Amino acid sequence: MTGACADIDAAGYWSVECWGGATYDACIRFLNEDPWHRLRTFRELLPNSRLQMLLRGQNLLGYRHYEDTVVNRFVERAAANGMDVFRIFDALNDLRNIETALRAVRRTGKHAQGTVCYTISPVHTIEHFVDLAEQLVEMGADSICVKDMAALLKPQPAYDLVRGIKQRCGEDVRVHVHVHATTGVTLVSLMRAIEAGADAVDTSISSLSLGPGHNPTESLVEMLEGTGFSTRLDKARLLAIKEHFATVRPRYAEFESNFIGAEAEIFDSQIPGGMLSNMESQLKQQDAAARIKEVMEEVPRVRRDAGYPPLVTPSSQIVGTQAVFNVLMGRYKVLSGEFADLMLGYYGAALAERDPEVIAIATQHAKKEPITCRPADLLSAEWDNLLSSTNALEGSDGTDEDVLTYAMFPQVAPKFFSTRPDGPKNLTRQTPAPVPAVIGPEPVQTPVSYDVTFNGRTHKITVKPG
Amino acid sequence: MTGACADIDAAGYWSVECWGGATYDACIRFLNEDPWHRLRTFRELLPNSRLQMLLRGQNLLGYRHYEDTVVNRFVERAAANGMDVFRIFDALNDLRNIETALRAVRRTGKHAQGTVCYTISPVHTIEHFVDLAEQLVEMGADSICVKDMAALLKPQPAYDLVRGIKQRCGEDVRVHVHVHATTGVTLVSLMRAIEAGADAVDTSISSLSLGPGHNPTESLVEMLEGTGFSTRLDKARLLAIKEHFATVRPRYAEFESNFIGAEAEIFDSQIPGGMLSNMESQLKQQDAAARIKEVMEEVPRVRRDAGYPPLVTPSSQIVGTQAVFNVLMGRYKVLSGEFADLMLGYYGAALAERDPEVIAIATQHAKKEPITCRPADLLSAEWDNLLSSTNALEGSDGTDEDVLTYAMFPQVAPKFFSTRPDGPKNLTRQTPAPVPAVIGPEPVQTPVSYDVTFNGRTHKITVKPG
C-alpha cells in the first residue's frame, strides 16, 4: 500500500479508512506485522489526510466486551498514534455499547462518528434509524454514518433515511453513507443519498472494487457530471492509484472470493454471502451439505426469536451457527454459548422482544439469568491483570499498545510477540502459480526394469504395474 | 443455454436477445454449429418470448456493405426462422445504412427497432441524437433503442436523452436503453432513464453480468422498490436462471477477460477497453509497446480528422489501427485501406466535416474519389453470384441460409460447410480442473501385488505400505 500513499494523500479524499476492523487481526495473525507500526507508517505517508478507522464500540477490535478503562486506553493510544476519525458501531445498534468509546474520542479532540447499522426486518423502520441517529448526536457524535454492511440499502430507503436524519438532526450534521456493492444496487443508492444531502459516501478505487467490496470511486466521480453535485477528487491521482492496485491485486489471486456478478437474492434470504459460506462449511463437516435449504429457511426464524438483530459480525455467525444446530439436532435442543449469551442480553439489547421460551432454554443452558443492563457494567477492572499477563510474555515490549494487542487477541498475541523481530511476511505470490496440466506423475503403464543388488549380487528385475 | 430456456421463457422479459452480433460468427468459426439451427432451437424452446437480434444495418452480420437484395433476403429468412425484434444500427449513425433493413423488417410484419449509437465528442449533442431518433420514427421504426456500447452514457445525459426523444417523438414511442457496465456508472443511468420514461432497459442475469457486459437483472428489479416503477419479472425464475449460468460460466474460465472492477478512464480517453488491447498487441508486434501513451493521444486526433465517428465495431478498429500507424511511421505516411475508405465516405457520412488534407491523402492512396452517396448504391446485384459460389462449395445445402452464411463469412463458410455434419463442438471444460492440495499421487494405503520377473521366473509379490 505504501507505493500508493503519495497519490492517495493528494487525491482529495475527505478521509482514508486504513485501520481497525479486521486489519489489526490480519496483521498479527497472518502478516507478523505490528498494527501500531502500520498506523504510524500511514500517519507518516499520509500527512495531509484524515486517517479513519472502524471501531466495534465496547468490543474494540476483539470479539468480547471490554471494561471501560481498556476502551478508553485503546482510543487514547489510537489517537496518539495518528488516528483522526473513529467510526464507532455496535452490531445490535445498542447505543450503550457505543457511548464509552464515543466519549473517549471526544476527550482526545478527534472526530467521533456515530454509526447506525442498516438492516431489513419487520421491526426496522426509517423512523427507528432516524431515532438512533438523533440519540448519537445527543451523545456528542461529530457526524453520523449509515453503515450498510450487507448491501441491503436500496435507492428509495437511502433517500428517505438520509433526508430523515438531516431533517431531525439538522442540515449541518454531517451524514456519511457506507455501502457494500454485493447486491449490485448500491451505487444507485449513493446517488439518491447524495440527492438527499449526504455529505460523504464510501467507495474504493476501481481496481479493488465491486463484488463483496465497495463501489468504484472513479465511477462515482463520473456519475455526478451534470447533476449539480461533484466531488473534490483529482482524476489523475485516482488513475495512478487504480493502476497501482491493478498491479498489486493479481498477486493476491488465491485469496479472492468466488463472487460472480451480484447477489441480489440477499434481499430475500437476509443471509449475507460470507454467512452463507460459513453455514455451508459447517454442514459439510457434518456430512449434511444437502440440508442448506432447510438452514436458510431456519435463519429468519432464529433471527426473529433473537429479536431481529442486524446480521453483521458477530451476530451473523451466532445466528447462522444456531440455525445449523436447529436443523441438525432439533430446534434449540443444543445451544451455542454465544447464542445463549445473545438471547440473555450479554451482547446488548435487541430491538424486538426476544422469544420467552428460547430465553428460558438459554437460561437453563448457560446457567445464568438474562440481563438488561449494559453488558460491560458487569465487568470488573481488568487493565492491571492484562498488563501483568502481557509483560510476562516473551517479546512483549511493555507498551500500552502491546497490552491492547494481548487484550484483544489473547490466543494470537503470544506467538506474534515472540516472532515480531523477524519483521512482516509477504504472503503474495510474485507470479501466479501455474495450474498443472497433469496432476502428479503419469501412472506407470508398462513394465519397468531395475538393477537390484541383493545380498551383494546385482540382478536385473522387471516389474509390471500392480 | 438450452437448460435455462424454460425459466427464461416464463420470467417475463419483454424480449430475449439471443442471436446476431458476433454470435453468428462464433457459431461457424469456433463451434461448428449452424447459426440458423440455433435460431430455430431458440424459437422452439422460447415459444412465449419475443426473440431479438442485433443487426448492423447494411453490413448485416458481416464486415462490408451488402447490396439491398442480400439485405432483404437476410431479414426475410431471419423472420421466417423465428426472429421477432430486429435492432438495427449503423456504426456511423448514417441512417441511410439502416433504411433498407428497417423497411425489410416492416414488410415481414416483425418489430423494427431503430438504433441511435451514443457517443461523446465536441459535435455530439442530445439535440443531435434526438434528431436521429425522430428520423428513425419517420422512417417507420416501431421503437427506438439508445445503444451505449462503450458505457459512456452518464445519468444526467441518460435522463435528458430519453426525455428529449419522448418529447419530440411522442410519449407513446417505445424507447429502449442498452448500456454496458464497463465504466461502472450505467445502472444509475438506467435508473434515470426509467425516471425519464424509458419503456425497457437491457440487463443480463447476474451470473453473466458486469465487467464489459451488462448490469445485473436482479439488481435492477430490486433497485426499483419504492420508486413507483417496477418490472414484470418473476424473481424465482431469475434465481433459477442465475444458478444455471453460475454453474456454466466457470467452464468457460479460459475465455474470461482480465477486466477488474470498472474502467471509468474511458470517459477521458474515449478508448473502449477492447480497442486499447488491440492497439497494445499491434504495438507489441512492432516491438513498440512503450509507445502506447503516444498512440492514446493520437486517437482523438485521428477521430477528429475522420469527422468524429462513434467508436464501435468497425470504426474503433479502423481509427485505432491508423493511430498506431501514425505514431510508428509518421502522421498519415501510411494509410490502412479501411481508414482510406472511412475518410472517403465508403462507410457512410460523418457527423462533422472530415479533414480535407487527410481526404486528399486518402484519395491518392486508394486511387478513388470521395463519395457522398449511400455506399450500397455503388454495389451491383450480387445474389446470383453468391448463390452459384455457395452451391459450388462442398457441404452447402442449397438454402438461402447457406448463401447468406457464405456472403457474410466467405473465408470461414467453406470449411464450416464441409465439417457441419460432425455437429457442434463443445469448447468448455466439463469440470473445472481441481486444484490439488498436494501435487502428486495419493500415498499408498493398502497392500499392492506385482508380477516380478527375477532371473527369468515370474513371482507374485505383495508389498504392504512401509
Automatic annotation (TrEMBL), chains A, B:
CDD domains: DRE_TIM_PC_TC_5S. PROSITE patterns: PYR_CT (PS50991). InterPro entries: Aldolase_TIM, Carboxylase_cons_dom, PCB-like, PYR_CT. Residues 1-239 form the Pyruvate carboxyltransferase domain. This is Sodium-extruding oxaloacetate decarboxylase subunit alpha. It comes from Luedemannella flava. The gene is oadA.
